Structure formats: C-alpha cells, structure tokens
Amino acid sequence: MCGIIGYLGYREAYPILINGLKKLEYRGYDSSGIAIFYENECSLYKTKGRVNELEKKISSYKIKIKGTTGIGHTRWATHGIPDDLNAHPHVSNSNELIIIHNGIIENYYAIKIILLKNGFTFKSKTDTEVLVNFIEYIKKENKFSLEEAVRVSLNEIVGAYSIAIVEKTRPETIIIAKLGSPLALGINKKEFFISSDPIPFINYTNNALYLKDGEMAILRKGEELDLRKITNNHKLSPIIKKLKINLKKIEKGKYKYFMLKEIYEQPKTILDTLRGRLLISKGIICIDGIEFSKDIFINAKCITIIACGTSWHASLIGEYLLEEFIRIPVEVEYASEFRYRHPIIKKKDVVIVISQSGETADTLAALKLAKKKGAFVFGICNVVGSSIARNVDAGVYTHAGPEIGVASTKAFTAQITILILLALKIGKHKSTINDSRYSSLCKELGTIPEKINYILKIYDYIKKISKIYYNFNNFIYLGRGINFPVALEGALKLKEISYIHAEGYPAAEMKHGPIALIDENIPVVIIATKKGCYDKIIGNIQEIKARKGKIIAIVNEGDIQVSMMADHVIKIPDISEELSPLVTVIPLQLLAYQIACIRGKNVDQPRNLAKSVTVE
C-alpha cells in the first residue's frame, strides 16, 4: 500500500529518492525514510509524517549526503503505530543489513520468538524488522552470501512482500524480491531504478521490468540484471517492456489537486474508453477481449463480479446492466469476503474481477481462487501489465490513464463504460436486447462526454451548495434502481476526503430504520431522475421533508415536482436510466471535493487511505 524507491548507478541517489518518494505520495502513507550508502557507511533518516518533513529534517543537519546507492520508503502502518521507530528503512541487529518492505509477513510472530531465543532484540513493533533480522540470522548461521540468505529466508515467509535490501559493506549491490506487492524495475545502461510503480523513474528511463510473484533480482553496479526464482534459484531471462506514460498526465497542471483534474478529465476518459470500440454510426461494438469471450458469456449460467471499494460500486451497476441486457443471474462479491467463505464456483462459470490498479491484494487472491475452481475469469482494470491483467483469461483495459487521486473518480466512470459495452455486446449476440434499443443506447453512449461537460460548467453552483452544508457531521445518500450504487459511491467520496460520516441507502429502505435519523441536522442527497421509480422517490422526499430533513436533489432539466420540494437541486441533462450513473455521479464527486476543500482537507492524500490496497 505504501511506496518503495531505490537507486543503484552513477548519479547521486538523494535527489532521486526524495523526488521519487514525492511522486509516490498518492499511494497513501504516514511516515517516510531513506538510506544512502557511501564508502561502507549508511546515512539513514526517517520520520513520522510527510516526505517534506523528512526533507526538512535532513536539511536541518546541514550536511551533503553523498552516495550513488540508496533506498527509500513511504510507510502505511500495519504492525506498529506511525512513528519514527516504526518508519522504514529498518536495520538488522549488527547494523549491517538495511531493508525496506511493503506487504505483511503473516508468520512474523513465530519467527520473532525464534530470534528472541537466539539473542536478537527489536526497536520497533514492525514485521519488517523481524524480516531483516531473520535474513541476518540465516546468513550468519549458514555462512551464506546475502543473496542466498534472502532467498532461503523468503522461502520460509508466509504473507506478501516487495523488498529491497542492502548490505552496508557491499553498497554496489541491491537485492529486490516480490510476492503479492507490486515492484517495478527501471533499467538504463549502468543504472537501476526500483519503485512500487514506474511513475518515479519515467523521467530517467522507459525500459521497465515488472517482477512476478516469486522472483528476486540481484542488482550489481555496472553489471547485467540477475533475475532468479526464489524457490529454486533458477536463473530467468528478464522481459523488458517499453513504457508509454505521458508525463503531463501525472502532473496537476492548473489544478490544485489531482482529484479535481481527474473529475474534469472524465469526458476525455470516456471518449478514450470508447475510441475504436464503439462505432456509433454502424452500431458496432468491437473489443478484442469481449470478442474472445462472447461465447463463454452467452453460455454462462451465472456471472460473479468481484471487487473492492469504488470498483465494488461499479460492479453493482454492472449487475443491473448485465441482468437487464443478457438475462443471466449476476452476483456481486466483496473480494475480501469471497475468498474466505467457500464460494460456489463451478467450471465454465464466469467471474469478472474489477480493479483500477490491477494490484488489489484481495481481488487478486479471489481471482486465483476462481481460476483454481475452474471459472473463466474476465478482468477490467486500468493499469497495463498489472498483476490482475497478467492473470485473467481475458479482459479489457479501461484506458482511463494514470489516476493519482486516492479517491477514485475517472476510473469509476471508465469501469461503468466498459460494463455498459460488455452488456450491450453480449445482449446483442444473445438477442436479449432488441435492435432499436441497442442502437439507441449506442448512440446515446456517444453523447455522455458532452453531458458531463454540461455538469462541469455548473461547478460554481455546486460550490455555493457546499458552503451551506460543509459543517454538517452526517449525510445520507439515497437512490433507486441502478442509481442506488451511485448513492453508495457519493457517500463513500464524502467519507474518504472530508471525514464526514455518510451512508448510502436504497430510497425505499428509509422506512426500515434510517428514517429514525432524519431531522434538521441531517442533509439527504437524493438522486431523483425522471426515469426509474420517479413517483416512488417523490414519496420518499415527502417523508424526509415531513421530518425537517434538508434535501439536495439531483434532478433532470425541466423537473418541477422535486424542485419544488428540495432545498437545493442540481440539474443534469436528460438521459436513459441504464446510462444515468455516468452522469449522476459527477455532481456527487464535485460536492464531496468542494466540501473537503472548504474543511481544509488534503484531498489527494486523505488520512489512513492508500491508492492501491496491496495488503489484505
């Protein structure tokens, strides 16, 4: 969940590490640190808090940090509170081995007991300090090289990790390894860049290798990459890829926060998702991953969609779409629950996994379980070459581009767009959607970017509403049908970035408990589009108003009834119910963003959250 950075080459390591950590801040963290090696010595600095605090701490020493080998880390606390002692890098008892680590060592306590019995002591509460001392123990007991000690130790580890480790007296070598947590390696002539993702090193090289699970690499200054299997030390041939990342896409430009930039990118994101896949004039949807899978989908008896967080909300929308258009039962599962409850999955069942990063630990584990049971696994993700993309049987990239803001926005609408295309394509093949409706929805899908642009133009009006409601401590979000998941997503966005308690419900469920909360201190955000149980929603609004609730309503242009009852209305263009989540979510994203800004929150780096949840 946190970030790893490392450098081995001919340049000074310090600026590369500090700038790299800044570019990894979006992943979420609560402490940071670096270690730089020079003439058999190690300069190690770490602190609780942000990377700029680490930078200030180092500057206060008024020394020049030399060294062309270094490792750095941003930590998201798992074992042990966020503080200076628990921050990475961690050092072995002899002060000879220095390590950074992402992931969780599940059997760390059993290993720690063994180490304590053998005289080891511990300064921190982390599983990482246990790991570095375990490697040292194996190294000394068996008189192994560091390379062999790392390999043998990792074969005894249960859990997930990506690590980089250096021996202080051999600063010309860094050893890295991966199981579960992502790790990328940038390669130039005479230098290596290590990172949790390629963004920190794309300025230096576009030659990258993504380590696979169970692989370790020995990086030696001035030598070729040495890639091996952890289990048997078998030497592997590295597969180097050319990265295609537009640097402008990972810069904020004129925007204060990445989140606002990414909200405003959604018209283009949806166009990019549709480009080359939807030929509106011919009514043709052509996507290789779906073409490859269409017969499997057509013959499926059931479909299970697995995801976490915002992707889970997109999955719920997918359930409505797939059941409506292809008439096959669909279940939506939290990945974290699916893998632990003995799910009923049969051969030839279809499982769809959805993840922005393609590295979500629970989703990846659920994918592997589904494949083990014989299911056909179809992936929807954003990051090319990610673990999920490499492990599915077929799939589709969303083409949303890098999403840096922790609170997902454009990835959500891109995922929905793919699910719409999938449902329409398979429905057309099955003849479970008539030609007229299919053609109409294809044409309307092409107008979505224009409709989103219309909503973005009323941002100033949403700002005014935000100023009225920013100080409330509880919100309720309501929707019906396909817009119920949008209510969930709107509530999640507000929680994530403003720290206001918010809950989403199907509007009809108000009478089954939540209505007890309604009074003048509870704003209710309700999606009240003309289609989809409009008359029923009118009744829900009347019930809320009768109890003095404050109502912010998302309505279609020309709406009269809801507009007369609501305290504030946000008007959106008219749209078919099946496509409406692509539009109704936009004002909810803007509302959450603006309320968080007024409350003075760091929108891109909300507390306790990480962009990619790569641990269970």
Report what the structure shows.
The chain is α/β, with parallel strands linked by helices and 616 residues long. It is 37% helix and 22% strand. The chain is built from 20 helices and 27 strands. The strands form 5 sheets. Strands 3-2-4-1-10-9-11-15 form an 8-stranded antiparallel beta sheet, with helices on one face. Helix 7 packs parallel to helix 13 (410-430) and helix 17 runs parallel beside helix 20 (581-598). The model has no long low-confidence stretch (mean pLDDT 91).
Briefly summarize what is shown.
The chain is an alpha/beta fold. The strands form 5 sheets. Strands 3-2-4-1-10-9-11-15 form an 8-stranded antiparallel sheet, covered by helices on one side.
Overall 3D form: globular
Structural class: alpha/beta
Radius of gyration: 26 Å
Number of helices: 20
**How far do the termini sit from each other?**
10 Å
Strands side by side in the biggest sheet: 3-2-4-1-10-9-11-15
**CATH topology (level 3) name of the largest domain:** Glutamine Phosphoribosylpyrophosphate, subunit 1, domain 1
What do the pLDDT scores average to?
A: 91
Name of the CATH architecture of the largest domain = 4-Layer Sandwich
Report the sheet-strand fraction: 15-25%
| Largest pleated sheet | 8 strands, antiparallel
| Beta strand count | 27
CATH class placement of the largest domain: Alpha Beta
CATH superfamily label of the largest domain? Aminohydrolase, N-terminal nucleophile (Ntn) domain
Helix content: 25-40%
Q: Are there runs of 5+ residues with pLDDT below 50, and where? A: none
